[in-house]
Design brief:
The complex is a heterodimer of chains A (418) and B (183). Chain A is α+β, with helices and mostly antiparallel strands. The relative contact order of chain A is 0.11. The radius of gyration of chain A is 22 Å and the shape is globular. Chain A has helices at 6-23, 27-32, 38-47, 50-71, 97-107, 111-131, 134-145, 264-267, 269-304, 316-344, 351-376, 387-395, 404-417, and strands at 151-154, 171-175, 178-189, 196-203, 214-220, 226-228, 242-253, 306-307, 310-311. Chain B contains five helices and seven strands; from the N terminus they run βαβαββββαβαα. Chain B has helices at 19-33, 52-60, 113-119, 140-143, 169-179; strands spanning 6-9, 37-41, 64-74, 77-83, 88-94, 97-101, 124-127. The chains are: A alpha+beta (418), B alpha/beta (183). The interface between A and B is medium-sized, with 21 and 12 residues.
Chain lengths: 418, 183
């Protein structure tokens, strides 16, 4: 794959038109006035039939698994693919571009919206879908996939970031048939507004924290003892509400324990790691959108901005910036194409490959966006020219979904294991 | 955006076709399909004659309503708000009929992803003039009642005059309007 297909281009054009008409005029409200992004995202989903396609895709998957289970009992439980397909009916085949295109297009203007969307539709639903029981999946996943409900995936704590499991202090204690949950989570995307929260914690059986099993629970907004903070103020991604969660003796039945088992392999670390790989690919899509837009704006500005009697694009130092941005765009675009083609061929990225893709794309997006600010000079520092926002937004791509440093360790571990 | 099929008429014999010739070809295609409602734009963005839709209606023997600013189908009739200089007329016509709509009346829906994926599978018939049973002499330059002998670019618009307000802006405006004999 070296270019978008005809259908992909039709989707890109349609989604871009929608975003430029429905979201761009309201950008300041999302970026600076605290308007939550969910209604705009829901409108995008219903406009393009993504909500209905996601529900249909989920139903089809459940049927397929039921049929497979009948012919080979037990086979699907441990081999469940957590990528979620859109069902586009006759002639529509599974294509990861369907989710990447909205990601890329939204990121050209409003990467925060992708963060809010991706955490709800991607992370939260995938966490439940990959390891949940059939009843749990049917209870929560279709509503998350269609944005009927907004999801949050709560792993990070004030004292645990990259060392998510090692330093985790949130706990679940058995109490009769139920669990009692306690702890606080921070930097939780959609935290302030989420309807459905996947809460990751450790089972406290009186043993040392390092020996505790990691469990995931699904919580609903409004459960007694669950407090969702107001949005936190942050550097960028202002259209993505980020908050804290405080749990004080929240009682959760076994029906809320993902997988309804305390078996670690089924419920905890493995589930979270499978979710990481998917998340990293999404970041590459966001990086591509940011890079594309910064490059377009920079080329336009280099042609129009006149200094010393000629367009600044005539100066070689400006040309150097543009050329570097184009190299980054080509590389990230190719990584995204490679992922699409691999997925279409039924192959999966390893965690190390996903890390390499994420590391490169995030760094490239940050560098390109900061160079765009530099190219715009004083104007670049002003919000009006938009590269300022994209530069602030891009930075977090190097931090969330695993910091650059964590990606490097995942890549190196894989190389040294061979 | 919901089209079930498309028909394209492509034939060298159509080169130079005028509005009436175009209407004849369209009428021949539409007769094969027998639709309940034929929607046209008001005019093309090249010839701008604005006559093709009504010629089409005449050739098909159907009623036509022009300049619709809204169209509602009710059973076997259409109800149209027809734009006029002073407002709009409410007009109804039985189907089948021809309706021309004004620009910006209806915004096309966005295609759904499902629709985009299905689009390639939708049939597109390509027809020639002969397929439609039309004598090639009736269309193209041969059948046209007019001939385009040359095309000239419109004269470029002159740049406007910038008047700086130095406290006498209103006087300059009044003088300008008087010069145009507007006041």
């Amino acid at each position: 794959m070296f270019e978008w297909s005809e259908e992909h281009d039709m989707m890109r054009t349609a989604v871009r038109q929608f975003i430029e008409k429905e979201i761009v005029p309201e950008l300041d409200a999302f970026e600076h006035e605290g308007r939550p992004p969910y209604d705009a995202l829901r409108k995008m989903f219903s406009t393009f039939g993504i909500d209905a396609a996601a529900r249909a895709g989920f139903a089809k998957r459940i049927r397929r698994e039921a049929a497979a289970e009948e012919s080979a009992p037990g086979a699907t439980a441990n081999d469940r693919d957590d990528d979620l397909d859109l069902d586009l009916g006759e002639g529509g085949r599974s294509d990861p571009a369907m989710t990447l295109i909205p990601t890329i297009e939204l990121s050209r203007y409003c990467p925060g919206m992708v963060t809010a969307l991706g955490v709800s539709v991607g992370l939260t639903s995938a966490a439940i879908n990959a390891k949940g029981t059939l009843a749990q999946r049917q209870r929560w996943v279709p509503d998350l996939l269609s944005l009927t409900m907004i999801g949050a995936w709560a792993i990070t704590e004030p004292g645990s970031g990259s060392d998510a499991f090692g330093s985790m202090v949130s706990t679940a204690r058995r109490d009769g048939d139920e669990y009692v949950l306690n702890g606080s989570k921070t930097f939780i995307t959609n935290g302030p507004y989420a309807d459905t929260i996947v809460f990751i914690c450790k089972l406290d059986e009186g043993n040392r924290p390092a020996e505790r099993k990691v469990l995931s629970f699904v919580l609903d907004k409004g459960m007694p003892g669950l407090e969702q903070s107001k949005p936190l103020r942050k550097m960028g991604m202002h259209s993505s509400p980020t908050g804290e969660l405080f749990l004080t003796d929240v009682r959760a039945g076994r029906d809320r324990l993902i997988g309804e088992t305390e078996d670690v392999a089924a419920g905890g670390r493995e589930g979270a790691k499978a979710t990481f790989a998917q998340e990293r690919v999404g970041v590459a899509g966001m990086a591509l959108g940011i890079i594309e837009r910064c490059l377009e704006l920079s080329v336009e500005y280099a042609k129009e901005r006149v200094q010393f009697g000629r367009p600044i694009g005539d100066f070689q130092l400006i040309q150097d910036k543009l050329a570097r941005m184009e190299v980054a765009r080509l590389n990230v675009n190719n990584l995204v194409f490679r992922y699409i083609e691999m997925t279409q061929a039924g192959k999966h990225l390893s965690l190390a490959e996903a890390s390499a893709l994420k590391l490169y794309s995030a760094r490239a997006a940050s560098e390109v966006a900061m160079e765009a600010v530099q190219l715009f000079g004083g104007n670049g520092y002003m919000s009006e020219f938009r590269v300022e926002q994209l530069a602030r937004d891009a930075k977090v791509l190097q931090i969330y979904a695993g910091t650059d440093e964590i990606q490097i360790t995942h890549i190196a571990k894989d190389l040294l294991r061979r | 955006m919901g089209a079930a099929k498309a028909v394209i008429v492509s034939d060298d014999a159509l080169r130079g076709t005028d509005a009436l010739g175009t209407a004849k070809v369209l009428a021949a295609v539409i007769k094969r399909e027998m639709p309940d409602l034929i929607l046209c734009a008001t005019e093309s963005s090249d010839g701008y004659t604005g006559t093709t839709p009504v010629q089409l209606a005449e050739l098909l023997g159907l009623p036509s309503i022009t300049f619709a600013k809204s169209v509602a189908v009710d059973g076997s009739s259409v109800k149209v708000e027809r734009q006029t200089e002073s407002g709009y007329d409410e007009v109804t016509a039985p189907t089948p009929c021809v309706v021309t709509v004004t620009a910006g009346v209806v915004e096309p829906r966005y295609p759904s992803f499902k629709g985009i994926m299905a689009a390639k599978g939708k049939p597109v018939d390509q027809l020639t003039v002969a397929d439609l049973g039309i004598d090639a002499g009736q269309v193209g330059s041969a059948g046209a009642g007019q001939e385009v002998v040359s095309v000239q670019p419109a004269e470029a618009r002159q740049g406007g005059e910038i008047v700086v307000d130095e406290g006498d802006g209103h006087e300059k405006i009044v003088a300008f309007l008087e010069q145009l004999k507007v006041i």
